[in-house]
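ingest -> validate -> predict -> emit
validate: passed (alphabet ok, no gaps, 214 aa)
predict: started
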Amino acid sequence: MKKTVLLTGFEPFNGASVNPAWEAVRALKGWSGDDFLVEVLQLPCVFGFANRVLAGAIDEIKPDVVIAVGQAGGRADLTVERVAINVDDAPIVDNGQQQPVDAAIAEDGPAAYFSTLPIKAIVAEMRARGLRASVSQTAGTFVCNHVFYGLMHRIAGTAIRGGFIHVPYLPEQAAAFAGAPGMALDEIVEGLRAAVEVAVRGGGDIGLISGATH
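emit:
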């Protein structure tokens, strides 16, 4: 029986017209392999609402793996997140004009959750495909971390594996910010393909000997 992988990406936010996370995720809609099938979901960039939409999709689709994807403008690599923290502290307003400060995501939740994806194995596979990739130790405190934490809180105690990947700006976005790095959409898509294929294989993680982290 094939495993179901749910990929999520955010709508554009902060006045942007595009979000590379969603553009890459939607390119993989319906993609399948011998042992998996990919479903995709666009999430609103709105505190609270995003987690309700995600929880509803998990209940409906019943995925085996969930990988949430978000934009991290200014990062040069595909960054596979290690940890989500129980804090909303927004540097800008979300698409619902909310800007929480030092607020708990889940009052009854732990301080943090670790990804249950094989994060270093995913990074190694991305690098093997010639992509810039690293493990990240912070998902920030905006809606990306909010969803990452909400995901892990929702699937805690289940067999579902979950985690979060941040992606760089697209080149056309980076051009608007002097010196900002970007990554071509086809490279981001290939990175997500690598993540899915490693995640569905299961098994433990590996060590990374070298490579920058953010």
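The chain has six helices and eight strands.
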